[in-house]
């Protein structure tokens, strides 16, 4: 069901429940059978439904409670809407809690002289280590055509994380 149809259905349910505002439905008996009764506009009892002898007590209780169940569920929907709107109004998540942008991190690291030296020593990057050569070597090592794929693929992201860890290990041991 699309959003427009859902909204129309919700509006219809709200209107039907509102038409019974202040009224409740109750199980009752009539002769040998069970009935569902409601208060009429003049305060009299109105028979809404008669149950067959084969109806179970659960079915009768569900029917008699339907109005109250609808009211309860509509109140849940209303509270959920209020909570969602409040969440939309809140400030965005702090940078530390956002998902890492590995592509941007890779782009910045490619400009680092230490990373260029690492690629030359460990991965055969030819001199001179121009930005284009470094970017191409990184794409080759990660087996991608664009660095943005680091954020789009778990496998590429794992290769990037391993390469970055190798670089950090190398950098920690490197004495310049």
Tell me what the structure shows:
The structure is a single chain. With 176 residues, the protein is mainly α. It folds into 2 domains: 3-89, no CATH class; 97-173, no CATH class. It is 60% helix and 11% strand. The chain contains 7 helices and 3 strands. The chain has helices at 3-18, 57-89, 102-110, 113-123, 131-142, 149-152, 154-173; strands spanning 25-30, 33-39, 45-51. The radius of gyration is 34 Å and the shape is rod-shaped. The relative contact order is 0.07.
Kindly state the number of beta strands: 3
Molecular shape: rod-shaped
- What radius of gyration results from the CA coordinates? 34 Å
Q: Please indicate the percent range of residues in DSSP E strands (runs of 2 or more).
A: 5-15%
Give the oligomeric state. single chain
Order of helices and strands: HEEEHHHHHH
How many structural domains does the protein architecture include? 2
Low-confidence stretches: none
Feature tags:
single chain; 176 residues; mainly alpha; 2 domains; three-stranded antiparallel beta sheet; 7 helices; 3 strands; 60% helix; rod-shaped
Give a short summary of the structure:
This protein is 60% helix and 11% strand.
Helix and strand arrangement:
Layout: H1 3-18, E1 25-30, E2 33-39, E3 45-51, H2 57-89, H3 102-110, H4 113-123, H5 131-142, H6 149-152, H7 154-173
Antiparallel strand pairs: 1-2, 2-3
């Amino acid at each position: 069901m699309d959003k427009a149809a859902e909204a129309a259905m919700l509006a219809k349910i709200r209107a039907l429940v509102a038409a019974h505002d202040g009224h409740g439905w109750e199980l009752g008996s009539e002769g040998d059978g069970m009935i569902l009764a409601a208060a009429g506009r003049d305060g009299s009892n109105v028979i809404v439904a008669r149950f067959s002898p084969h109806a179970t007590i659960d079915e009768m209780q569900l029917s008699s409670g339907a109005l109250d169940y609808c009211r309860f569920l509509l109140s849940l929907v209303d509270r959920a809407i209020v909570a969602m709107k409040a969440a939309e109004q809140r400030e965005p998540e702090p940078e530390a809690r956002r998902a890492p942008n590995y592509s941007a991190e890779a782009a910045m690291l490619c400009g680092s002289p230490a990373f260029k030296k690492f690629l030359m020593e460990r991965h055969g990057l030819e001199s001179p280590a121009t930005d284009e050569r470094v970017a191409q070597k990184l794409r080759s090592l990660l087996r991608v055509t664009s660095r943005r794929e680091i954020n789009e693929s778990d496998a590429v992201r794992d290769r990037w994380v391993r390469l970055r860890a190798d670089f950090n290990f190398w950098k920690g041991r490197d004495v310049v």
